[in-house]
TrEMBL record:
<keyword id="KW-0813">Transport</keyword>
<keyword id="KW-0677">Repeat</keyword>
<dbReference type="InterPro" id="IPR050567">
    <property type="entry name" value="Mitochondrial_Carrier"/>
</dbReference>
<dbReference type="GO" id="GO:0015227">
    <property type="term" value="F:O-acyl-L-carnitine transmembrane transporter activity"/>
</dbReference>
<keyword id="KW-0496">Mitochondrion</keyword>
<dbReference type="GO" id="GO:0006839">
    <property type="term" value="P:mitochondrial transport"/>
</dbReference>
<comment type="similarity">
    <text>Belongs to the mitochondrial carrier (TC 2.A.29) family.</text>
</comment>
<keyword id="KW-0472">Membrane</keyword>
<feature type="repeat" description="Solcar">
    <location>
        <begin position="105"/>
        <end position="194"/>
    </location>
</feature>
<keyword id="KW-0812">Transmembrane</keyword>
<dbReference type="InterPro" id="IPR018108">
    <property type="entry name" value="MCP_transmembrane"/>
</dbReference>
<keyword id="KW-1133">Transmembrane helix</keyword>
<dbReference type="GO" id="GO:0031966">
    <property type="term" value="C:mitochondrial membrane"/>
</dbReference>
<feature type="repeat" description="Solcar">
    <location>
        <begin position="204"/>
        <end position="290"/>
    </location>
</feature>
<dbReference type="GO" id="GO:1902603">
    <property type="term" value="P:carnitine transmembrane transport"/>
</dbReference>
<dbReference type="Pfam" id="PF00153">
    <property type="entry name" value="Mito_carr"/>
</dbReference>
<protein>
    <recommendedName>
        <fullName>Congested-like trachea protein</fullName>
    </recommendedName>
</protein>
Length: 298
């Protein structure tokens, strides 16, 4: 990433990178949420999904390929501002940490700047995630639908519990995004630094962006996955299921499923993480170079 580009350029370029992320990664995100939120089988019953491939196959069989893109309107509508604010927060965090423009940030300082960006995004991310998850767990076929799209879901949530219902899971979202964002941006900068020498060709720089972006996505989810599982369960549960919020979700999950459940859905997440985040950073780098060319003083 260019350290000389302004936070405004980070904002605009991050938005474009976010759109690239959703288009590349939403199908595996749908699989992840369905695996995380499927009901526990009763004694003698088989699980709704045996794993990632079984979930993928049943979704396509029952709902067609469009079923993999269920709920995409929510993140696609929110993702441009979410990623824009995230990258803006990272750019601003770097500016605040630096004592002068030529200072090279250490890895902990890059982590801190990235974590700073995670705080910025929650106001948009939490309601978008709530709506997305509720739409994603709706099954196709003859199953009745409670929500007919993003706006209908938001309207019904507001009618049921007001603004608090729409923002259900905000604390879980913060606990996921702050450390995960720190790891995300630090990993990208670190790997890019290792892979790209000063005299690198444009082709090598592009390959390094793909590798560093993909690895950043994997690092992000390794850190953020446990909080994401708790968030998904909390946000999709009927009102009153978890009166004490995340504490009740965590307690019930540990009692019934054990610690490994904190990484439920990890396979589709990791399959999605590399291409989706590689696409994000390729989009970001392309956009910021374009802005540096057309508006050098922005």
């Amino acid at each position: 990433m260019s350290d000389k580009s302004s936070p405004v350029k980070y904002f605009l370029s991050g938005g474009f990178g976010g759109v690239c992320t959703v288009l590349a990664g939403h199908p595996m995100d749908t699989i992840k949420v369905r695996l995380q939120t499927m009901p526990l089988p009763q004694p003698g019953e088989t699980a709704l999904y045996k794993g990632t491939w079984d979930c993928f196959k049943k979704t396509v069989q029952n709902e067609g390929f469009r079923g993999l893109y269920k709920g995409m309107s929510a993140p696609l509508t929110g993702v441009a501002p979410i990623f824009a604010i995230s990258f803006f927060g990272f750019g601003l965090g770097k500016k605040l940490i630096k004592s002068d423009d030529n200072q090279v940030l250490t890895k902990p300082e890059l982590f801190a700047a990235g974590a700073f960006s995670g705080v910025f995004t929650t106001s948009i991310m939490a309601p978008g995630e709530r709506i997305k998850c509720l739409l994603q767990i709706q099954q196709g076929g003859n199953m009745p639908k409670k929500y007919n799209g993003m706006l209908d879901c938001a309207r019904k949530l507001y009618a049921e519990g007001g603004i608090r219902s729409i923002y259900k899971g905000s604390i879980a979202t913060i606990l996921r995004d702050v450390p995960a964002s720190g790891m995300y941006f630090m990993t990208y900068e670190w790997i890019k630094e290792v892979l790209v020498p000063e005299d690198a060709s444009n082709k090598l720089k592009m390959m390094a962006t793909i590798v560093a972006g993909g690895c950043a996505g994997i690092a992000n989810w390794l850190v953020g996955m446990p909080a994401d599982v708790l968030k998904s369960r909390l946000q999709t549960a009927p009102e009153g299921t978890y009166p004490n919020g995340m504490r009740d979700v965590f307690k019930q999950l540990m009692e019934k499923e054990g610690p490994t459940a904190l990484y439920k859905g990890v396979t589709p997440v990791m399959i999605r993480a590399f291409p989706a985040n590689a696409a994000c950073f390729v989009g970001f780098e392309f956009a910021i170079k374009f802005l540096d060319w057309v508006a050098p003083n922005l």
